[in-house]
Amino acid sequence: QIPREVLEKKAVEQGDIQFFELAALFVNTKIKKKDLTVELTNFIAPLDYVPQEIRAKITDWKAWIDYWAIDFDFKGDTFHNQWQSYRTRKNKKLETSRTHTYTESGKYTIQIKVIDILGNDTTKTLEIEVE
């Protein structure tokens, strides 16, 4: 993430600007004929700006994720949310895999978007081919 303040020369000169590492998202895909299964396998949040008391409470990588969504036919411009899983106060369980059936064979670009519990956005784009 690039802070807005980086555009202010004075803030840069004073050292007031901080750059943070991006999160790492790991995904497995399985294709069987026209069925694609997308599975989140790991998410590593950058800990630079996370208070120690919060870090200590999170023991499972899935707990960092608040919401995730998939665009099964990403065209390179706008993300179209075609499926999502998110937590609620009553249901804290997060699905970590989803299967989608394509109607036509071919090459597709999929994009996975994750929003972590701190509001940061992480995306991963993959090329797949279905029979």
Overview of this structure, please?
This protein is mainly beta. The protein is built from 2 helices and 7 strands, in the order H-E-E-H-E-E-E-E-E. Strands 4-3-6-7 form a 4-stranded antiparallel sheet, with no helix packed on it. It starts with 8 loop residues before the first helix and ends with a strand.
Spatial order of strands in the largest sheet: 4-3-6-7
* Assembly category: single chain
- What's the overall average pLDDT, rounded? 88
Query: What shape does the CA trace take?
Result: globular
Which structural class matches the secondary elements?
Answer: mainly beta
Q: Helix coverage percent of residues? A: under 10%
Q: Which H/E pattern describes the elements?
A: HEEHEEEEE
The largest sheet is: 4 strands, antiparallel
Fraction of residues in β-strands? 35-45%
Low-confidence stretches: none
Q: What is the number of E strands?
A: 7
What is the rounded distance between the termini? 38 Å
* Tally of helical runs: 2
